[in-house]
Structure formats: C-alpha cells, structure tokens
Input
Amino acid sequence: MNIATVNKISRPSKKQRIDTIVESARSIFCSHGFEKGSIEDIAKDAGIAEGTIYSYFDSKRGLLNEVLRRHYSIFFDDIEQTLLSIEGPRNRLRYLIRRTLIIISEDRNMCGLRTLYAREIDDKRPSLSHDQNRRMAGLMENEIKAGMEEGSFRPDTSSRIACYMIGGALELTEYSYLRTGKPIDIDKVTDSIWQMIRGGIESREATTEPLARLIERLEHVTDRLDPM
Output
C-alpha cells in the first residue's frame, strides 16, 4: 500500500465513533442485560479499544443514559410529527395510547431496559425514564384539557387522574409482556384502555351532537324533496 492509498483512508469522525459505541452498547445491553453487559463486550462489538469508550463516556451508566436518550428522542420526534396530522383531542389521545403500546411491543429487550431503569429513583437526579414518562403524561394531559375546552370531554374531568389511569394500564400491560413474552394485541388493548377512559371523561353532549347534526341534515333533505 503506497502513501497515496493510506491518505485516502479517512478515520471515522468523532460522531461516527460515538454512534458506533452507542449502537454496540444498545446491542450488548439488550442481549446480555445491563448488569452482565460489560465495557469489554461493547468494545469488542464496536471493534475498538476499551480506552476509546472512556474517551467519550465516563461509565457504563453514562452509556445507558445515551442509549435511552436516543431511544426516547426518536420516539417523541415521531409522536410530535404525527400529532400534527391528527384532528381532534379524542383521536390524538387514542393515538398516544396506541403508539405507547407499539413501542412496548416492538422490542422486548429494550422494553426490559426501560423498565429496569425506571425502577431506579434518585431524588437529586430523576431517571431519564421518569422524565420521559412525565413527558408522555404531559402530552396526554394536554389533549384531555383540549377536549374539555371544546366540550368533547366533561368539564369536571381530572386530567391528572385520567393520565394516572392510562399510565397504570400501560404499565401493567408492559409488565405482563415482560413477564410472559406473550405478544400484545395492540388494537384490542388500545380499545380496552380507550373505552375505559372514554366512559369516564367523555361528555354526553359530545356523543349526542353528531346524531343531532345527522337528524338536521336529514330534515333539510326531506324539505328539498317535499313538493310543497
């Protein structure tokens, strides 16, 4: 190999090296678990020296933080883009429930990492999982409040309690999936959670109004057909 050929071989950029390390960490943590997965395993998977990892991350915990941060970033970017195309707070709230079930069922190993990390509570520095759970609850609460303002949800609804109920149902579903490995019927579970919540917060006026509009339209059609 001559000097010209050597010069053409570019070294990976800092970003590329970090991306490789994070992807290897995700793979190792998901396949071995966080406790058993080692920096040595990650370095071997990434094809680099262990010392290179410590050039960018101070600990295995720091690596897990970055794995989860990127995981949640992709998840919420997708949600926020999709919400813009969905009309009405009822439809958006139902979408948030369904989308959460999808991310639970997509990757059981990643689901286990999120759940394990969520159990660790540090009063001085809440875990990333807790931060993201609050972020999702905030999105749901916004839709409930929007529904209350437009009249589709009851004005006396407690948005916080409704979010607790949804969150509890999703958490139990996730726990069952982790414990049994039985696939989640996303449509069925979404409908079950939605019907439970809808029955408690949906305004009676919201359910009768469409029927009233239909009757009004039928009356207009009848008037046009009447020869009088």
